[in-house]
Fold this sequence. Notes:
Protein name: Oxidoreductase
Domain Oxidoreductase molybdopterin-binding: 30-178
CATH architecture: Alpha-Beta Complex
Order of helices and strands: EHEHEEHEEHEEHEEEEH
CATH superfamily: Oxidoreductase, molybdopterin-binding domain
Strand content: 25-35%
Pfam families: Oxidored_molyb (PF00174)
Region (Disordered): 1-22
Organism: Brevibacillus formosus
Largest sheet: 7 strands, mixed
Amino acid sequence: MFINPSSDTKRDRIPPNQKQTTGFPVLHYGEVPEYTDLSTEWSFRLFGLVEEEVTLTYEQMMALPKGGTTNDIHCVTGWSKLDNEWEGIPVEEVLKLVKVKPEAKYVMLHAEHGWTVNIPLVDFMKSGNLFATKHNGEDLTPEHGWPLRFVIPHLYFWKSAKWVRGIEFMEKDKQGFWEKNGYNMYGDPWKEQRFAWD
């Protein structure tokens, strides 16, 4: 359900050509992953420009310190959802597991089915970004990225990869899945960076 913002404060939080929704639309490419045993079917890899690669089991990932954040999210298709409460593993806790080489300037998030998304390292490291396990007090549903979804609210929501399985640290920017299919390399909703030509 889409609604009109009820106050100037909320209006100021919605980027150009976006409509506020109280729902949580489900959009993705391909099938929703299914798991029967996360202890054997799931791992999380940190690799690329790091001193030593690290691979975590599901249990090890879930044992990392947890945190929470509240933010607004903006989908490239035109909807915005305000005041989302997320719980999960803050980016800074994951970054403590590796020593990133100084030449690393970008990350590529790797997710199920070969899905990828590129983000500048400085944006990836921003406080408030996290690997979410819960949304508004409930476990993420498979359609919304369970068991782990990256959340980076200051970019369009396609950059918040569902079903994320790893982080590759890179020197140069490379196109992720949607970027190869015409989406903007950065994706700032306030500048309406929706497509490659924006």
